[in-house]
Automatic annotation (TrEMBL):
Matching SUPFAM superfamilies: FAD/NAD(P)-binding domain (SSF51905)
Single GO term (MF): oxidoreductase activity
Gene Ontology cellular-component terms listed: cytoplasm
Organism: Crenobacter intestini
Domain FAD dependent oxidoreductase: 34-384
Keywords, comma-separated and alphabetical: Oxidoreductase
Name recorded for this polypeptide: FAD-binding oxidoreductase
InterPro entries tied to this protein: FAD-dep_OxRdtase (IPR006076), FAD/NAD-bd_sf (IPR036188)
Keyword Oxidoreductase set for record: yes
Keyword Amino-acid biosynthesis attributed: no
Length: 430
């Protein structure tokens, strides 16, 4: 098992194909800012960019490199709504909560597209994501999702039947799908690097290799690293699954989970096109789901797993290759060029957690595997709240945040047990 290297991005396809980005010096000495953001992933950089656009003086402290965490390692899938959908929100938290969160369910994807256009970010954006069903039950659930999303104003979704699947994905695995044309896929590391450059172009400051070691609450708050301190009117905690135990009351409410990704060698262009004729990204409907898409240079990027802590490249390939070859038997023996793992943050409710600690420390975490869009929405909501417009942020902050039962020690075994149970459920189709 190799250890995390904080000075370099994970050895991914993304790191190998990243746009040029400068190294940034670590924090040195005492600095004053309006807002200090902890973590330079989508949540942190998106918040920082919104605030810089509004004229705030913002400094971002990143333990490793911009996009080093999940944001620079993920499947790149723009998936709308939340990890638990609006109907679940309505059932658990009532009609009003569902209406408020439902009104924002497709906003994150719009923000991403606005950013790409406004700042000319090169990140291989493609439209269209597909939820693929193995069983009639899953297909019925997708049909219900379509009706639900249409009630909340989505006009770009359609069902695909078994016959139509050939135009979507060249695999016998599925009986149908839901195609969301407002979803899509992109190179996530290049997106966050581009957003970071946009933030810096507005005068924002990012310090890399600057792990925050202490947060002292107060007005102003103080954020400390080994070599410096930021005094700020507001702090945004955006460390998500990599935050560790910096703020124990946040740590106890989430569980970092690993998911693994492989990328093949470049495929013959015609073969690549035949696998995914619409060039959409796909995620299946299992709880322990597989997700995949083509890259701009005709590789198949395939993820799955959800195994806490699997890091060794051989271990990752032996975990993901059988899944890839089951979906695409025509790729048996294909060369794998890159393997990597990354952590996302799971919550017990599988809904994101946003809130305040005291008056001026804000946080957002726990997108439970579907964070590319939510983190961009969160960035806007955090910036609105800091500017004194609390309404939309509070719609999320009002959701209850449950601690994992059993505390820190039992969280990992509990998840392993949970993953085993959901794996059984996926297999027997209940
Ligand atoms: C392999 C993988 C595949 C995924 N695929 C998808 C997908 O296809 N679609 C989708 O919607 N979602 C996907 N997700 C989830 C999505 O990537 C995340 O929800 C999202 O990127 C989280 O962004 P973030 O900014 O909150 O956290 P991160 O991107 O993890 O950023 C947190 C940052 O905070 C820094 N940090 C932590 N502690 C400190 C500290 N003390 N001091 C300073 N800095 C600190 C870390 O170094 C890190 O850079 C995937 C996740 C993984 C891991």
């Amino acid at each position: 098992m190799h250890k995390e290297d904080f000075s370099h991005h994970a050895p991914s396809y993304y790191a190998a194909s990243a746009n040029q980005s400068p190294g940034r010096p670590a924090l040195a000495g005492k600095v004053r800012a309006d807002v200090c953001v902890i973590g330079a992933g989508f949540t942190g950089i998106s918040t920082a960019l919104h605030l810089a656009e509004a004229g705030y003086k913002v400094i971002v402290l990143e333990a490793a490199r911009v996009g080093w965490g999940a944001s620079g390692r993920n499947g790149g899938q723009i998936v709308n709504s939340y990890s638990r959908d609006i109907d679940v929100i309505e059932a658990r938290h009532g009609k009003e909560a569902a209406a408020r969160l439902g009104a924002m369910a497709f906003e994150g994807g719009r923000i991403i597209r606005e950013r790409i256009k406004q700042y000319g970010i090169q990140c291989d954006l493609k439209d269209g994501n597909v939820f693929a069903a193995f069983t009639q039950k899953q297909l019925d659930e997708l049909s219900a999702k379509k009706a639900l999303w249409e009630r909340y104003g989505h006009t770009g979704i359609r069902m695909v039947d078994k016959a139509g699947m050939r135009g979507i994905v060249d695999s016998d695995a599925y009986c149908g799908a839901l195609l969301d044309t407002w979803g899509g896929h992109l190179h996530p590391l290049n997106l966050v690097l581009g957003e970071a450059a946009a933030f810096e172009s507005l005068g924002g400051v990012i310090c890399e290799m600057s792990p925050v070691t202490a947060l002292v609450e107060g007005e102003p708050a103080r954020v400390r690293t080994a070599s410096g301190e930021v005094e700020a009117d507001f702090v945004v905690v955006a460390g998500n699954a990599y935050l560790g135990n910096l703020i124990p009351r946040l740590a106890e409410k989430t569980l970092p989970c690993g998911t693994q990704v492989v990328t093949t060698a470049p495929l013959d262009a015609a073969l690549a096109r035949s696998l995914l004729p619409g060039d959409n990204c796909v995620e299946d409907c299992n709880f322990l789901l597989d997700y995949y898409r083509l890259t701009a240079d005709h590789r198949l990027l395939y993820g799955g797993g959800t195994v806490y802590g699997a890091r060794d490249p051989g271990e990752i390939e032996s975990l993901i290759r059988p899944k890839l070859e089951k979906t695409f038997p025509q790729l048996a023996g294909v060369k794998i060029d890159y393997t990597w793992t990354g952590n996302f943050s799971l919550t017990l409710s599988r809904l994101p957690q946003a809130g305040r600690i005291g008056r001026n420390v804000y946080y957002s975490q726990g997108c439970s595997g579907h964070g590319v869009t939510y983190t961009h929405l969160a960035g806007r909501l955090l910036s609105e709240a800091i500017r004194g417009q609390n309404g939309r942020f509070d719609a999320f902050a009002a959701l209850p945040h449950y601690p994992f039962p059993g505390g820190r020690l039992l969280r990992v075994p509990m998840l392993t047990l949970g993953a085993w149970w959901y794996g059984v459920r996926d297999k027997v189709g209940v």
